[in-house]
Amino acid sequence: MALPRSLKLFLPFLLFLLFGTESKAQQEQIGEPLISFSYTQRPLSFVLKDLGKRYALKFSYSNDNLSLSNRITSRAKNLSLPKALEVLCNSAGLSYEIIGQQIVLRQIAPRKTTLSFQPFTQTLRGIVLDEVLKTPLEGATVILISEEPMRAVSTGIDGSFTLEEISIGRHSIKVTYVGYQETALSNIQVVSGKETMVPIHLAESFEPYAEVLILAEADKSLAQNALIFSSVHPLRADEINRFAGSRQDPSRMAANYAGVLSASDQRNDLIVRGNSPLGVLWRLEGVEIP
Fold it and tell me: For residue 32, what pLDDT is reported?
């Protein structure tokens, strides 16, 4: 027997209500009630108290980390406990965790927006010159003392130096070089628009020292003239008194050697191997005696 048309249209709706009610009853029997709520600008303390009273829920939280005076607006209808808690926490800015019979609520920390800041840097160039001669000084040490850690570079063959990636602002440098006075420059302004060029002039350093006296002892047994190799007889002061008849007279002393004669006792002329006494040269410590 065929069913009336009105009954055919009403039958699916009837089956839906039947099985839907049965499923809802089964969930309530196994301890998972469907939760429904609707709150508009209600304090969080009221919402938690109302849900706990209606569905026997036990909320756990810290009063220091959770602001119960915040007003929230949230709605849910016939949702399972996890989904209902998710809707509620999203509205209140919370997170939850079910531990046993307790629902632990925590405040979600706001995300910190970090802005990447790249500091502006610039290059510092310069040249180190002699203060008087204006010539470049190779190998001078340039130290940047206004930044930590300090940086040091050496000048090239043309006296130039380069310090790269220096922060914008005012800086100080120190320059040292062997034989020159140490020089420090401060308030060097480094700007982002262009490189900074610094000329540096170093003055020579003069350090007074004590007088140094060098004495050399000559071998008195040798001739003072290094070009003479033979027939040399040096006359020493201590030998004057040892020769007979010398009477502290060098000419009389020289007359004691072979081939040397004295012209007379009245003069100091010496005749050496028959040569004229005019050819004899007398010197005292290298100075000719006429």
Answer: 64
Output the pTM of the full model.
Answer: 0.37
Cα(260)–Cα(273) distance, integer angstroms: 6
The angle formed by the CA atoms of residues 168, 173 and 178, to the nearest 5 degrees, is 155
What is the chain's pLDDT, residue by residue, as a tens digit (290 residues)? 455 555 555 555 555 555 454 444 444 444 567 888 888 888 888 888 888 888 888 888 777 777 888 888 888 888 888 888 888 888 888 888 888 788 888 887 766 655 556 778 899 999 999 999 999 999 999 999 988 888 999 999 999 999 998 999 999 999 999 999 999 999 999 998 889 999 999 999 887 777 888 887 767 666 666 666 666 767 777 777 776 666 777 777 777 777 787 777 677 677 888 787 777 777 777 788 77
CA atoms of 178 and 119, how far apart (whole Å)? 36
Place of tokens 């220096």: 166
3-state secondary structure the chain: CCCCHHHHHHHHHHHHHHHHHHHHHHHHHCCCCCEEEEEEEEEHHHHHHHHHHHHCCEEECCCCCCCCCCEEEEEEEEECHHHHHHHHHHHHCEEEEEECCEEEEEECCCCCCCCCCCCCEEEEEEEEEECCCCCECCCCEEEECCCCCCEEEECCCCCEEEEEEEECEEEEEEEECCCECCEEEEEEEECCCCCEEEEEEECECCCCCCCCCCCCCCCCCCCCCCCCCCCCCCCCHHHCCCCCCCCCCHHHHHCCCCCEEECCCCCCCEEECCCCHHHCCEEECCEEEC
Alpha carbons within 13 angstroms on the beta-carbon side of residue 267 total 9
The C-alpha atoms of residue 121 and residue 73 are separated, in whole angstroms, by 51
